[in-house]
Amino acid sequence: xxxxxxxxxxxxxxxxxxxxxxxxxxxxxxxxxxxxxxxxxxxxxxxxxxxxxxxxxxxxxxxxxxxxxxxxxxxxxxxxxxxxxxxx
Length: 88
Description:
Elements: H1 6-35, H2 40-54, H3 60-87
Helix pairs in contact: 1-2
């Protein structure tokens, strides 16, 4: 589920791209930290920090989509209820 408005779609796409880039960055840092031989403690700290900082930001598009899905279903349910109520 993506927003219906044009501005909302562009903003959603931008947020999705940024979150995908953050995910890619975290994966690259994790691979780098696991292959380094010297300074592995600093690399491990860098890996943990990237996941702690970027990790909570990554599921934002999923949460946004779920929020839109729930809101649209509620709107359809209330619209159907009002339509049923108006025919009586």
